[in-house]
């Protein structure tokens, strides 16, 4: 039987946002030492981690500094220096998910080509270097930047013209007439064991294309649930992923499940797992990268998560209205990301509501939407 001493392991996280914050919280609970790399000294994870290296996520020297003080590296954002990560792996440093996996996921075209190669159902797509008038006959379609997109950025829906098209390397996809947007967190260990969290439904804000609420479990048939889990597992095994992955999918009106994209890290659709599952997605990540057994992913109670976004006409120091009334709602937990400034639609925190009845949990979340606002000190 193995013996462990404190710290159980030294974990380095590339990035210091809210995902690193919640990962560090799970790691500290379990007795790990956490170092983060982020250019912002007062980033969300700063108050949780044991130490921080201040620097760019694209700075080879800073990434090497992090590797030297860590037993294993992971990341809370895809947009990092992959070339240096490859060099670190070649030098013997452990990084999960691997740079090889990250190279596929960073590029939406490579993702799509992988889905196509393994016969994983997805929307029809085409690579585009620069959108021109010749594509007018293909309208409507969705255009996605190949690199760098997140939280609705780098995605445009083009219906009647291409005036607002992205003039960068991208892919265009057919517009899917979907019934629901689904997601699932997949855990895959170093030895290839897998665990699936419940399939959830994501509801997106039409104006920002940012996930608004997550409903767990998704209200779908057993057949659709099985189909979604199977497709998601197939995708993660196809990329040989090790870690935690958020897999987004479309459920069409005729019952097809189409994979949209993969995130190689804890995902917004899995925040509910902190309260609602036996093992949160964040604890699961710490277990996986430390080569410890997978935790149980069972759902304890139906739950609904709501993202708390900065109001669209404000920026500056955040001012929360309706906090007392929100926290008086039974079964509700608040997560605040400690970001010093807000701006329109910035993710400032989230709330999760657990209830024996999913409909009641949804009603409570809708109450929060009417009560709680995050404004800034400066109107714009």
Based on the model shown, name its key terms.
3 domains, 380 residues, globular, alpha+beta, Dna Ligase, domain 1, Rossmann fold, four-stranded parallel β-sheet, nine-stranded antiparallel β-sheet
Can you walk me through this structure?
With 380 residues, the protein is of the alpha+beta class. The protein folds into three domains: 10-95, Rossmann fold; 124-174, ATP-grasp fold, A domain (Dna Ligase, domain 1), CATH 3.30.1490; 178-379, 2-Layer Sandwich (D-amino Acid Aminotransferase, Chain A, domain 1). It has ten helices and 19 strands. It has helices at 18-30, 60-68, 82-90, 99-106, 108-117, 222-238, 273-276, 281-289, 323-327, 358-371, and strands spanning 10-14, 33-38, 51-54, 72-75, 125-128, 141-145, 155-158, 170-174, 178-188, 194-196, 200-204, 211-216, 243-252, 257-263, 303-309, 314-321, 332-336, 347-354, 373-379. Strands 9, 10, 11, 12, 13, 14, 15, 17 and 18 form a nine-stranded antiparallel β-sheet that branches. A hairpin with a 4-residue loop joins strand 13 and strand 14 (257-263). It is globular. The model has no long low-confidence stretch (mean pLDDT 95).
Helix content: 25-40%
Largest sheet: 9 strands, antiparallel
CATH architecture of the largest domain: 2-Layer Sandwich
CATH structural fold name of the largest domain:
D-amino Acid Aminotransferase, Chain A, domain 1
Under CATH, the homologous superfamily of the largest domain reads: ATP-grasp fold, B domain
Q: Helix and strand succession?
A: EHEEHEHHHEEEEEEEEHEEHHEEHEEHE
Oligomer: single chain
Shape: globular
Average pLDDT over all residues: 95
Report the span from N to C terminus.
61 Å
Structural class: alpha+beta
What radius of gyration results from the CA coordinates? Answer: 20 Å
Classify the beta-strand content into a percent band: 25-35%
Text of the CATH class of the largest domain = Alpha Beta
Q: How many domains make up the coordinates?
A: 3
Question: Ranges with pLDDT <50 over ≥5 residues?
Answer: none
